[in-house]
Amino acid sequence: MRLVEVTDANRDAVIAVRVHPAQERFVASVEKSFQHAEESPDANPWFRAVYDGDGPVGFVMLSWNVTPQPDIRGPYFLWRLLVDAKLQGRGYGSAILNEVVALLRAEGATELLTSYVPGEGSPEPFYRGYGFLPTGEVDEDGEIILKLDLSARP
């Protein structure tokens, strides 16, 4: 598995990555992620396609090394994590986070924030199982903020 820059050559294949329909209310699409990135340059969006072999199996997007602001969490915020519906349950989500954590540690980051929409079928169990813990904060959209202590995870 590897993180690959999104280019004109692979953009359509990356956009075709879709979560299970029941997860769509919790995770925005890749296409919507690109729109959010374009609309929020101050969040310093960093995104990559996730490849296993010749094709994309997922997508990840972070706010990368930003100064926190009222509407931008940081310095590192996991904005989006998707694994294609056909490939979920095979360890890709954790493998993607392992890659991201390694990159963040190389940058000197000490924590990674993320959020989730509460409800039946949310990604909360996945994030909590990986080691993210609630900060006690809720954002303006009602999403629960979680933090991963990068010094505590092997």
Automatic annotation (TrEMBL):
- Domain N-acetyltransferase residue range list: 1-151
Q: Which residues cross the membrane?
A: none
Question: Which CDD domains does UniProt cross-reference here?
Answer: NAT_SF
The UniProt entry's coiled-coil ranges are: none
Q: Which domain of life is it from?
A: Bacteria
Q: Which PROSITE patterns match?
A: GNAT (PS51186)
Q: What is this protein called?
A: GNAT family N-acetyltransferase
